[in-house]
Amino acid sequence: MFEKSLYDLIRGLRNHKGNERVYIQESLKECRREIKSNDMDLKATALMKLTYLEMFGHDMSWASFNVLEVMSSPKYRHKRTAYLAAVQSFRRDTEVLMLAENQLKKDITSPTPTVISLPLMAIPHVINPSMANSVLSDLLPRLNHSHASIRKKTVVTLYRLALVFPETLRPAWPKIKERLLDEGEDPSVTAAIVNVVCELGWRRPQDFLPLAPRLFDLLVEGADNWMKIKIIKLFATLTPLEPRLIKKLLPPLTRLIKETSAMSLLYECINGIIQGGILEAVDGTAEGEEIARLCVGKLREMMEIGDANLKYVALLAFDKIVRSHPHLVSLHQDVILECIDDPDISIRMSALNLVVGMVNSDNLVAIAGRLMRQLRNAPVASSADDPANDRGHHSGFIPAADSDDSDAEESLRQRERKSNQTPPLPEDYRIKVIKRVLEMCSRDTYANISDFDWYIDILVQLVRVSPATRQTSTVEHTEISDFDSRGDVAFDIGQELQNVAVRVRSVRPEAVEAAQSLVLVDRRDQMFPASGNGGQGVLECAGWIVGEYANLLSKPDAVLTSLLHPTNSQLPSRTLAIYLQAIPKVFASISGNEQISWTPERKTIIALLLARIVHFLEPLATHPSLEVQERAVEYLELMRLAAEAASGTATENSSEDFVDPPLLLTQAIPALFTGLELNPVAPGAQRKVPLPKDLDLDTPINPNLHYLLQQADIEAISDADEDNIYQAYNERVGVPIESSITAFERLEGSKSEPSSYQNAIEEEYLDPDIIARRKAERRERYKDDPFYIDPDRDRESGVSTPLHNILKVNNGDELDIDAIPIIDLDLVNKDRGAEQRGREEVARSTAAKQRKLRRGFEIMVDETLEGPEESTASSRDGSRPDLVRSAQARGKKSLLEVDSSGLGALSLEGWGDGNSKLDIERREAEEAEMAKALKEVERLRLEMQRAAERIQAKDGPAEGTLVRRKKKRVKTVKVEGAEEAGEGPKEVEGEGEAVVKKKKKKKAKPEEQEKEEGRNEGEAEEGLVKPKKKKKRRQVVMDESVPEGN
Amino acid sequence: MINAVLVFNNSGQPRLTKFYTQLETSVQQRLISEIFTLVSNRPISSCNFLPLPPLLANTSKSSTPTTPHNDTPSLVTYRHYATLYFIIISTSTESPLALLDLIQVFVEALDRLFENVCELDLIFNFETLHATLGELIVGGVVVETQLEKVVDGVRTQGKVAKRPVNDGKGGLSLGGFGRGDGVWTGR
C-alpha cells in the first residue's frame, strides 16, 4: 500500500531535485526491506527499482539471490523483471550462478515462447563454461521450435555458448548449418545465422568455404541489406582461401555497386572488394581496371556528397586501398587532403593515417606544411575537454530526469558551435600528427626529402608545438627520476634531428645550429611551448648533438654556459647524463686549441670555465641516478686535474713569445672525444660482430667484488658530510618561472588564419624567427643570381641607401608574404582540374622516383657487417623501426572485448574423427546404443517369454509385472532375461554382445572396426563377463523374489 | 559483434545500458561518462563515429594488421535524437553505416510502440526499452532488422504502457536528425 512502484521512484527522483542522493539511499533501504518480503509482487517491484538504480551505478550484487527467487516465480511478468535484473547485474563472480542453472534449463523447455526467449536472451550475459555444457542439451532442440523468433535467438545463444566453451559448437554446428541450408526457413532466422556465421567466419574461414554456394544465393536473391552486408564481409575473408570465388563474386558485386541506393550496402561492396583482395586478383585485366575505377569513383562521390559519415567511411576505404594501389588513391588527393583540415576530429584522424601512405617527394612539403599549420594555429585543448578529467569520472551519475522540459528543437540548436573558430586539438591528436609528420618525412631513410634545411626547420617548429608530457613533476627530491623520455614525442623529434645530423653531412652545421638553439637556456622561452613542459624530451638528443659536433657550434661559450646552468640539475636523469657527457666535449673544443698562445687572459678564462664546471659537477656526484653519478664523478676528477694543470702552467710574459698551453687541455682531453666519426649502425649489426675467441665472460674480474661493495656501503654510511647528501636529496634548486608568451606573439598567432586550403604557405606553419632566417639564407644563396627578384631590394629601388637596407634586414620584416619562393611549381597548377592534376601527379611521381634526391644530399645508410641476414626486414630496407613502433605485443584484453580466440583452435571439419569427439556427444552415442541394445534384449525377452508361455502353463508372470520391470534399471531387465532364457544359445549370444559393448563404452575405447569382432568376442569373452553377471544376478534374484513372493 | 548499446540524454544521464560482456559497475559508469564527454563535445556537423574513449583506446592498440578482424571493440557509432544519444560500441565485423541504420530502426520501433516517443516514455518504461533492444540484438549479435517484426516481438510480451498523463512533451523527432538522412537508407 505504501510501497513505491518504479513509477513512484522515478517521480520521487524528479521531485527531489538537488538532494537525489539522500532520496536514493532511502529508496535503496526500502528496496532491501521489500525484497525480503514473501509477496512476490513486492519482491519483483523492488527488483525492478534496483535494476533501474543499477543503471546509475548503484550496486545491486547483494540482491543476486533474490533475483533467482523472482526468476522462479510462475508469472511471466516477474520472470521478465528477474531476467532483466540478472542480465544487468550478474558479474563473473556472482556466486548464485550455479543455482541459476536449473531455472534456466527449466525455462528453456517451457511451452510458452515468450518464456523461452527470456533465458535465451539472458544466457549470453551470464554463461560460464561449466554451465555451457549442461545447458546445451536443452538448447539444441529449440533450433527446431515452431516460432522463428525462438529459433533465431537460439542460434545466437549457441554462438555465445561456443565463445565460452568452444566444444559446444561441435554438436550445434551441424544443426545450425541445416537451418541455414534450409531454403524454406524464415528469412530473419537465416539472417541471424548469417550474422553468426560472419562472426565465426573470420576466425576459421576455411571451415565455411563449403557454405559458399548457399551464401552466394542469399547474396543474389536476398532482400535484407543487413544480411547482404554480412555476407559480403564474410566473403571478404573467404576469397583469399578460394580464388575461384572472385570470378563468381565480381558480377553481383559490380551490379550491387551500380544499382543499389543503400549507401551502406554500396560501401560494404567496395570494402569487400578491397578487403577480399579482389582488386589485386583481377589487377591487370580490363575487368580489373574497370572495377577499380568504379570503386574509387564511387568513393570519391561519397566524399563529395558532403555527408560527414560518408566522408569518414570513404577515408577508411581509401586507407585500405592505399597500401596496394597508391596510384589510384593519389588520383584523388585533392579531396583527401581537404579532410586533413576537417573540423571533425574523427575525419581528420583517418585522413591523417591515409595521407602518410600517399606521401611522395612531390607532395611531402605541402602535406607536412598543412599539418604543421594545424598544430601551430589550433589552441591547445583545455583539460576540461579531456575525457579523463571528466566530472562523471569520480562521482558517477545521479539520476535526475531534468531534460523533459527542454524542447527538442532548442536542444539541437544549442549544441551548434561557431564554425569559424578552430576547435582545440586534443593532445593525443597532436602527438599523432607530430609522429605522422616524422614518419612521412623519415620514410625510407629520407627518400622523399629534397630539402633538409626545410626539414630541420620543421623539426624545430615541431618542438614548439609539442604537447606537455603527462609525467610532469618527475624530478622530486629523493626519488630516482626514472622519467622515461622515450615515450615522449619530443624525444622522437630529437631523434630525428640527431639522425639528420649524423646521416646528412652536408646539413650537419644547420642541424647543430638547431640543436644549439634548443639547448641555449636564454632562448628557451622562444624554442619551447609557452606553457607546460612540452618538448623537453628533445634536449636529450640536442645535448648529444652539441657535444658530438662541438667544433661546429657558433656559440660554444653560450652553449657551455647553458649546459652548466644550475636549473639543469632538475632535468630528467637521462638528459642530465647526456649533458654531462656534452660538457667536457664542448669544453675541449673551446680550450683545446694549441695554436693560440697561453696568455694570462686565456689562462683566466680557462680557469674560470673549469671552476664553473667543477661547481656544476660537484653536487651531481651524489645524484640518485647511478649513470649521472658515475659520469659526474669521472669528469669531476678530470676537470680538477685540468684545473691544476691550467693553474700550474706559466703564461707568456710578453706578447712575442709563444707559450704552449698545457698538454692535458690540448691533447689529452680532446683525444677522449675525437678520433673516428660516429656513423649510423643498422639494427642487428651488433649481433653479427664475431665473438672474439679469447673472450672469457665467465671468470669474475674481481672475485672479491661482493666484499668490496659491502665495504663501500659501510664507508658511505660513516661519511662525515651527511649534510651534503641531505641537501642534494632534499633541497630543490630554484626553478625559473616559465615566462609566458608575449601579447604580441599572441596577436600574431590569432592573426594568421589559413587563407587558402589549396597550398600551405610557410608563413602559416613556421614561426616568424625561423622564416626570417630562411629568408636571409635564401637571399644569401641567390645573391648573385640575376633572375632572383629580391622583394626587399625591389621595393626599395627608389631609396637604395645600403645603410637603410641593412637596418631593414636586421629588423627582420618577417610578415612579408612576397617572400614565397618563386620556384614553387605547385602554385601554378592549382587551378586545373583534379583529374588532370592527379594524372600529372602520377607521372611526376614516377619521374621523381627516377631522379630521387635531386639536390644531391648524401644520406648515410646504416652500417652493417656482411653476414647471414638474420635481422628483420626492417633493417634490410633501411626503414627505421624506432619510428614505426608498432605495439606488437598483445596487451591485456580490451575492456568490452568478447574473447573468441578459443574458437580459433576448434576445427569444425574434423567432425567425423573418432578421437576428437567430445564427451557429450560420446555420451549421447553411448546412450543411443545402449537404448538399442536394451530394446533388443527386451524383444528377445518377450519372445522367450512368449515361448515359455506356450510351453508352460498359465501360471507364468503376469503382464503387469513385466511393464513395471521395463522401467527398472538396465541390469535388472537384462539379467532377468538371461535368467529366464535359460541356456538358449541364440539368446545368450545377443545378450553377451550387449554386455560387452557396454563395458567397452565405459572404458571409452569404441572402435568401429571392432564391431565385427564384437560378435565373436562376445562369445569368447563371455567367460570374463560371467562373474560380474553372477553378482548382479544374485541381486536381481533377491529383487525378483519380492514380487514373486507376493 | 556489438559490445555495448548505450542510451543517455543530453546531460549524460543514462537511460539504457546494455553491455554484452560482464563489466564492473564502476567501469561501466566510467565508460559512459567518457563517451558522453566525447559525444557532447562534437560539433553538430561532424560524423557519427567517435574516436575510441580512453578506456578502450589504451588496449586497442594491440590490433595486428595481419588479420582483417579481431575481437577488440574498434567502432563507436552514435546518433543524436532530440534529447537522447544512442550509442553502439562494436568490433570491426559490423558495418559502420549499417549500424547507423540499426539505431534508426531501434528508434523507429520505439516510436511505433509508444506513439511519438519521447525521453520520458523511455524513463518510465525502461523494461520495454530493454525488451525492444532484446528483439533487435541478442548477445551482441543482431537478430532482426525488420521494423515490423521488432514491434510485433515486443507486443507479444505484453501490453506496452502509455506514458503518464501530463508528463509528455515533444517526441524524439525522428526526421530531425539532420543532414544526410535521406541519402542512405540502407535497411
From TrEMBL, chain A:
Compositionally skewed regions (Acidic residues) per UniProt: 860-869
Q: Where is the composition biased (Basic and acidic residues)?
A: 410-419, 973-989, 1005-1018
Q: Which GO terms describe its biological process?
A: Golgi to vacuole transport; protein targeting to vacuole
Write down a Pfam family by its short name. Answer: Adaptin_N
Task: Specify where the region named Disordered lies, as residue ranges.
Answer: 381-426, 859-888, 951-1046
Question: Organism's domain of life?
Answer: Eukaryota
Domain Clathrin/coatomer adaptor adaptin-like N-terminal, which positions?
Answer: 20-641
Q: Which UniProt keywords apply?
A: Golgi apparatus, Membrane, Protein transport, Repeat, Transport
Q: Where in the cell is it found?
A: Endomembrane system; Golgi apparatus
Write out the biased-composition intervals (Basic residues): 963-972, 1026-1035
List GO terms (cellular component aspect).
Answer: AP-3 adaptor complex; endosome membrane; Golgi apparatus
* Family that this chain belongs to: Belongs to the adaptor complexes large subunit family.
Q: Supply the PANTHER family for this chain.
A: AP-3 COMPLEX SUBUNIT DELTA-1, DELTA ADAPTIN-RELATED
**What is the stated purpose of this protein?**
Part of the AP-3 complex, an adaptor-related complex which is not clathrin-associated. The complex is associated with the Golgi region as well as more peripheral structures. It facilitates the budding of vesicles from the Golgi membrane.
Q: Subunit notes for this chain?
A: Adaptor protein complex 3 (AP-3) is a heterotetramer.
The molecule here is called: AP-3 complex subunit delta
Please give the organism: Lepidopterella palustris CBS 459.81
- Taxonomic lineage: Eukaryota, Fungi, Dikarya, Ascomycota, Pezizomycotina
UniProtKB/TrEMBL annotation, chain B:
Q: Which InterPro entries match?
A: AP_complex_ssu, AP_mu_sigma_su, Longin-like_dom_sf
Report the residue ranges that make up the AP complex mu/sigma subunit domain in this protein: 1-159
Return the GO cellular component terms, semicolon-separated: endomembrane system
Keyword Membrane on entry: yes
Query: Can you say where in the cell this protein is located?
Result: Endomembrane system
A GO biological process held by the record: intracellular protein transport
UniProt keyword list: Membrane, Protein transport, Transport
Q: Does the keyword Manganese apply?
A: no
Q: Which Pfam families match?
A: Clat_adaptor_s
Q: Which domain of life is it from?
A: Eukaryota
What family does this chain come from, according to its entry? Answer: Belongs to the adaptor complexes small subunit family.
- This one is known as AP complex subunit sigma
Q: Which organism is it from?
A: Lepidopterella palustris CBS 459.81
